[in-house]
Amino acid sequence: LFREVDLVIIGLYPQATVDWLLEKMPKSLCRFLARRYDGALRRLGDENPDFMAAVTDLTHKRCMELGEQTPPPPEVFCQSVGSQMKNCFSAPFPLNLCWLLVRFFEKNNDGLVALEAMEWGERFQQARSPSRRGLSHGDMIDLNRQNIPGFDVREFYVELVKDLKARGF
Question: What are the beta bridge partners of residue 145?
Answer without folding.
Answer: none
